[in-house]
Amino acid sequence: MRIMIVDDEVIIRTGLAKVIRWHELGLELLKPAASAEEALKRIPRERPNILLTDIRMTGKTGLQLAEETKALLPDAEVIILSGYDDFVYTQQAIRQGVSDYLLKTSRPEEIIRTVLRAKRRIEEKWAARNEDQAKQKAARSLMLERLLLGETDEADLGRLPAYLPGLFPEADSGGEGRYQIALIHAEGWGESAPMAALLLFAVENMLGELLRCETLMQKKRIAVAVRLDSRGKLALAGLLEKIEELLKCTLFAAVGVPVERLAQCRESYETAEEAFAYKGLLGKRICLYEEIRQRKGGKTVCTHEEEMELSAILLDNDLVDLKNWVQRYMKAQLDDPQTTIESLEAAVHSAALSAHRWLERALSATGRGMPPELSAPHLNLKEGGLPKDALFAYLRAVMSLYHQRLAEGPAAHVQKAMAYIEQHLGSDVGLQQVARHVHLHPNHLSEVFKKETGTTFGDYVTRRKLSRAMEILSVSPAKISEVAAKVGYEDVKYFSQLFKKFTGKTPSEFREEAAGGGGAAAGSMEE
Description:
Blueprint: E1 2-6, H1 10-19, E2 28-29, H2 36-46, E3 50-54, H3 62-72, E4 77-82, H4 87-95, E5 100-103, H5 108-148, H6 154-163, E6 179-187, H7 193-210, E7 213-218, E8 221-227, H8 237-247, E9 250-255, H9 265-276, E10 286-288, H10 289-292, H11 304-316, H12 319-334, H13 341-365, H14 387-405, H15 412-423, H16 431-438, H17 442-453, H18 457-475, H19 480-486, H20 492-503, H21 507-514, H22 519-523
Parallel strand pairs: 1-2, 1-3, 3-4, 4-5, 9-10
Antiparallel strand pairs: 6-8, 6-9, 7-8
Helix pairs in contact: 2-3, 11-12, 11-13, 11-15, 12-14, 13-14, 13-15, 15-16
């Protein structure tokens, strides 16, 4: 709150300025003015809340100054100082809207009490006004929220011009026209909740100044309802650019379909929400529902090749490669003009599930179960945030957990080797290849492997390959040659010999037994 002292006597104005510690009263002392004319020039710019002025001055009097000040600033409090104890002056001062009347001979404490009374009156006005404004804003917000959710009745619709004047042109309360809802998100003032809320408040204020509309503050966004112009267009691009430039922020707007009547605003709001789900995905400032409504959906499944590449990265514990893989994977989805939020969510979930299965297999190969802290992935992209961030965070957690678990104890190298073997059963995995992965000399790995597992490296690989073949034969009608290829054997005859030595049965006999006697069909698959 600001106070200005006006007196043509330099001793009086400088004395009043110095004898009282105005800042301790919660007041900012503006530079004292030497005349009413000087004060009137400065008042529109400096806007003092309290004016402490001499009644008799060269030029305009303090009473004239009071009258003109009240015309400029109706809420200002004016305190008159006089060297004359004259009741006539007091009466005239009251007529001019003067708040208080003091003699220049008044002691400082009396001046302080008078100024504090004026300060309290101003604060009471502000509080009352703020309370009224808050009530009005709450009522308008409630009515707009009911309108957007389709909860208004006939009585509500009749009251809309009074509650939501921004949707009604002047001299027209009929409400005829076309309407549209936009949802606006703002960022750029920091991640803290207070700063994010302050930015939204600033954007809402600017929208009210630049656009005839009604606004509703929601969590992390603003719902904007507008009545379209005669061209039926909502010109948002230039408006958002102007707000971004002034507030130094970044805005995103999702725009629903235009509707013919206010009662249909729910449809525009719901379609705006669908478009809002694409925030951060399309690289655009504005997403129109009309642009995404025709999308049929893109790829939903992580391919075998993508899964194998991901598994290799997770094994290598390479954070940079993992981030690059996620970026490539997501770019492929987002570049597809048919991608929808649903298909994108399915593709992200598929990639996360691939990592989850890999971790389950890798830990199982070392005799360890899945930790309870990493449950099956469920990434809901509509809850906010970018899908690539959500996917990268989950994959990073999988990779970190895997390497933390296998780094425990003296057998860490062997456990990592076993997990690597499990992941590469479909290839000709050898001792030197695995030794490079675990950073050991092949001879040393062979020794510690035998010591920890009780079997040679080669026998362990063979057993795991044949165990995987048994799993495939139990559930798949694939040809025996195809099963052999899946576990890294190009020579089907050699594979069959190893299989019988390991299980006591040929691959076909094993399949027949696993199928419960349906051998004819299964046997016909063997080459």
